[in-house]
Design goal:
By secondary structure, this protein is α/β, with parallel strands linked by helices. It is built from eight helices and 17 strands. 28% of the residues lie in helices and 27% in strands.
Length: 319
């Protein structure tokens, strides 16, 4: 099929790569403008842009698609590009910009969105993070017919994936990205053969919103439950990274499990050895297995303790 694709990060790039490999004609790629990143904070292309450049695909990076918004020239140019591309369908995955109705009306089959949750649970910007943080036992991919709402469109296909006790957002992201790519290729194959995708309205019950991560959430509050703290550490791996303060230094925490223990003061180091750094919470404790000092590498608890003294009884972070 002749398609346009809108997406930005690695999650989206997995789908674009699969669609391109399946032989679909990618007539236009939309991705967000380059953002500063890395040590020098130089402008970095998105994963989707890099793939489009490598494959010689037509590319546009509008700052907005709203014709009446802050960047009308960008939106007008994008509209012209989409009209000239004359595509049958627009595939969207983690694009990061709101799509006005005019965008969805242009292609014959409208916009198909690859969403990383089992809708209507976890509509919004951070569905993978919030599913792990909440302790969900499963998540998945919903292929959705886009409308003007926030992830409110009819569901076209859905497939579940279990959330393992060891899953981080990074590991679950990779599973869902691969699944979403496979599902959208299958869906376009059906459209190409003249079959209909059967839309199902989302149920009104069970709607939750995966709000965008806020910077303040990364700092661990040791007065919360051990299970929640451990889940949050996994949910914030690899971004933005959960953290706590140790001797006045902010240290990132990358791996943790909840364990039974008690202490009169939350955030107290109960033991620190090669097996992990065990810190008390309100109803148990958290065994931290991987840490990172500012400017340093991720280290196992054993390696971290070789260069950082953490005596039993030390109190971490805000109590």
């Amino acid at each position: 099929m002749r398609i346009a694709f809108a997406g930005t990060p690695e999650f989206a790039c997995s789908a674009l790569t699969a669609l391109h490999a399946a032989g679909h004609e990618v007539a236009l790629v939309l991705t967000q403008p380059d953002r500063p990143g890395g040590r020098g904070m130089k402008l970095q292309p998105s994963a989707v842009k890099q793939f489009a450049l490598d494959q010689g695909l037509p590319l546009a990076q509008p700052r907005s698609l709203r014709l009446d918004g802050k960047y009308p020239d960008d939106a007008t140019a994008a509209r012209r590009a989409l009209m000239d591309a004359n595509v049958e369908v627009l595939v969207v995955a983690a694009y990061g910009l709101i799509l006005p109705q005019w965008v969805l009306h242009l292609p014959r089959f409208g916009g198909l969105n690859i969403h990383g949750s089992l809708l209507p649970r976890w509509r919004g910007a951070a569905p993978i993070h919030r599913a792990i943080e909440a302790g969900d036992t499963q998540t998945g991919i919903t292929l959705m017919q886009m409308d003007a709402g926030l992830d409110t469109g009819d569901m076209l296909a859905m497939q579940a994936v279990p959330i393992l006790a060891t899953d981080t957002t990074g590991s679950l992201h990779d599973k869902l990205a691969a699944l979403g790519a496979s599902m959208v290729v299958e869906a376009l194959g059906k459209l190409e053969q003249g079959a209909d995708l059967e839309p199902v309205r989302q149920p009104e019950a069970g709607v939750t919103y995966a709000h965008k991560l806020e910077k303040h959430e990364a700092l661990i509050d040791w007065t919360e439950s051990a299970e929640l703290i451990a889940r949050r550490i996994r949910a914030f791996n690899p971004f933005p990274g959960a953290s706590t303060t140790m001797h006045g230094e902010t240290v990132k925490l990358w791996g943790a499990t909840a364990v039974p223990a008690t202490a009169p003061v939350c955030g107290t180091v109960l033991c620190a050895d090669a097996d992990g750094i065990v810190v008390s919470a309100c109803d148990g404790a958290v065994s931290i297995s991987q840490l990172q000092r500012p400017g340093g590498k991720r280290l196992s608890a054993a390696d971290f303790l070789r260069g950082f003294a953490l005596p039993k009884g030390t109190v971490l972070g805000p109590a």
